[in-house]
Design goal:
Layout: H1 5-25, E1 39-44, E2 52-55, E3 61-64, E4 68-71, H2 77-88, E5 98-104, E6 107-112, E7 118-121, H3 128-134, E8 142-153, E9 156-161, E10 173-178
Parallel strand pairs: 6-10
Antiparallel strand pairs: 1-2, 1-5, 3-4, 6-7, 8-9, 8-10
């Protein structure tokens, strides 16, 4: 059974739409895209010399044995596993078994009317309320209705007021404003 061109077009539109909705809802481990500052661990079963723990450079690269510098910016963990398997297969190993995990996510930042402002490692499923809790909670002068998030997308920064149940993304800058009452 094959799909018609119209069905393929509709399927593509649906995937694009729901992908955009997912980005607004938050990040899962399977959709998280690697970027500068993330720390990863690559393990190849039975090949200790190929196990690497590395932080992505500001250019989004890591250094890997035999390959040198590898650009991994924007890849998911699954895509990076596939890339390493593809590069190792044949010339180096017959059937490599590769596992990639993120050992430390890049940071998001909280400042303003919180008890302990600073940078914190992102985790999938993080909401603004949880991010404020990581920063020690609201100060007595905080406005719980006035939390602003500065987020960069496609090189453009935008700041908007968000509710506490909204997701936090890596590199977000969260500002808890002071209450007037």
């Amino acid at each position: 059974m094959s799909l018609s061109k119209i069905q393929m077009l509709l399927l593509g539109c649906a995937i694009a739409f729901f992908g955009a909705v997912r980005a607004e809802e938050g990040v899962t481990v399977s959709t998280y895209q690697l970027d500068a500052g993330d720390q990863i661990k690559i393990s190849v079963f039975g090949e200790d010399d190929l196990n690497v723990k590395s932080r992505l450079t500001d250019a989004g690269t890591i250094s890997y044995p035999f390959f040198g510098e590898v650009r991994v910016l924007g890849l998911t963990v699954g895509q990076l596993e596939s890339l390493i398997i593809e590069k190792l297969k044949g010339d180096y190993l017959v059937n490599p078994r590769v596992n990639v995990i993120i050992t430390e996510y890049r940071k998001f930042f909280v400042y303003g009317e919180v008890k302990d402002p600073g940078g914190f490692s992102f985790e999938p499923g993080l909401t603004l309320e949880k991010a404020v809790a990581l920063a020690g909670g609201f100060s007595p002068r905080a406005s719980k209705d006035s939390v602003e998030v500065t987020r960069e997308r496609s090189g453009e920064k935008s700041t908007k007021r968000m509710e506490l149940d909204k997701p936090v993304l890596p590199d977000d800058i969260i500002n808890v404003r002071e209450s007037f009452f």
